[in-house]
Amino acid sequence: MKTFLDCVPCFLKQALGAARMASDDPEAHARVLRTVARAVAEMGMDETPPSMGQVIHRVVREATGVEDPYREVKDHFNALALSMYERLKSMVAESDDPFGTAVRLAVAGNIIDFGVRSDIDEESLERSISESLGWPLEDGALDALRRAVDSADDILYVGDNAGEIVFDRVLIEEMDTDRVTFVVRGAPIINDVTMRDAVEVGMTDIVAVVDNGSDAPGTILSDCSQEFRERFLRADLIIAKGQGNYETLSQAPGRIFFVLKVKCPVIARDIGCEVGAVIVWEREIG
Amino acid sequence: MKTFLDCVPCFLKQALGAARMASDDPEAHARVLRTVARAVAEMGMDETPPSMGQVIHRVVREATGVEDPYREVKDHFNALALSMYERLKSMVAESDDPFGTAVRLAVAGNIIDFGVRSDIDEESLERSISESLGWPLEDGALDALRRAVDSADDILYVGDNAGEIVFDRVLIEEMDTDRVTFVVRGAPIINDVTMRDAVEVGMTDIVAVVDNGSDAPGTILSDCSQEFRERFLRADLIIAKGQGNYETLSQAPGRIFFVLKVKCPVIARDIGCEVGAVIVWEREIG
């Protein structure tokens, strides 16, 4: 997905939020904002929004000297989601449609996205769960994903955020874990999932986990490691979680299901849905 | 009031809204955004937000060739408010406190501010009226303004927006009109009130109307005409409507009452109130 003009004010809002997360120094916040304003003035609109996200958060790291401003946020949400793990497992086990419920929970966890808002808390997460369980999905969407998962030999599950990864684990445990590889970002970026989070929540105990070699808040294949690109092309099914992966993989090769909660009006317009929508969607290759 | 970092993303949002109001050409929108992004990267944060507003809307006019992008909006809201005029007059006449009700209605009209949002409609205006009539004002605020108006010989009523000016007229008609001068902006800026609006709604028939010689969305005295500055200093009471006048006159000399609806979180924090608050406040000179 290309960048829309409406993304531009939001980039500055994100930059300010991240600068405040990284530092208490108003001078550093101003420096970040000015640098990002100059960068957006020059940016190409054909790039995806996560390309600019990558630039923004590099500026934040450089201006504040903080390598991983969201580390506390990530630890907090990993712990919070882990404390919910048994309850999530019961919800799946007791459901008439365990796989479908696990997919809906995985989408619910996608609310934990500090790229969009920085006021996510336990209450928003609980609300996201009940909304997601009741959301009217497109006819056959869950069945299509179920069939794709059942028939695939090599599933690449591209994660999105810390905390959310526990919800992903619950869904992956409904699959044949021998056939699943979980993907994390190559370096800290916003509250996106990294190898440390995969270890923290036990994902590494149940499936293979690989990092993509990139510090973008999405999956910009040209920015990923050669090794990851090859791994991506080898998979026969890709499950891409969240907005950042949607924005960066909507034109990528391969069989891709996008599984996300829509949190921004630009993506809602691109998909043709409302903000808040629960999306389980197999991208048709045009 | 100085500019806060939180204003910066909002400047770009305003620029995009204004560019879209002025032109259907996406190239022009992008040009405006890039130019404004460069300008905010260089701006001094000690200036007031309307200083940047002035820059933004000059960029919009230059990039689109449209001198008065909000002309239709202004005509629409002047006509809408005029169609409500008799009803507003009855509300005042039938009230136990006609002056107080007129003040509350004048604040209600301040919702018609396209600097903050561009989705104001008749419904938002009606909602603003009922909220404003019921808002718990600070004890004695209306009495203080009433006493100030009764004892002043030379009242400068600094208007804010088109449409809203009809609500201002209803309030001014509760004063001795011989002692009131209404102030409009010196040139089109957003949907701020200009001489043309004062004529359209009959304000020029009831009081003296002067323009301030400036195209800022507020009253930046140093940017106003020499004549207006002298006029301002001569007044013994200033009633300053709306956010833009609050932002630019909060440090100005003279006896000033700020009368506004708070529409942005930065101003709410500066005043110490919530977004949506109805403010009738005599600024104490420190």
Keywords for this structure?
homodimer, 286 residues, alpha/beta, Rossmann fold, 6-stranded mixed sheet, 13 helices, 53% helix
Give a verbal description of the structure.
The structure is a homodimer of 286-residue chains. The first copy, chain A, has a six-stranded mixed sheet, with helices on both faces. Chain A has helices at 7-22, 26-42, 49-64, 71-93, 98-109, 122-134, 141-151, 164-172, 195-200, 203-206, 226-234, 242-249, 265-271; strands at residues 155-158, 180-184, 208-211, 237-241, 256-261, 278-282. Chain A has two domains: 7-64; 71-282, Rossmann fold. Chain A is built from 13 helices and six strands. Chain A is of the alpha/beta class and 286 residues long. In chain A, helix 8 (164-172) links the parallel strand 1 and strand 2. The model of chain A has no long low-confidence stretch (mean pLDDT 95). Chain A binds chain B through residues 5-6, 8-10, 12-13, 16, 26, 29-30, 33-35, 37-38, 40-42, 45, and chain B through 5-6, 8-10, 12-13, 16, 26, 29-30, 33-35, 37-38, 40-42, 45.
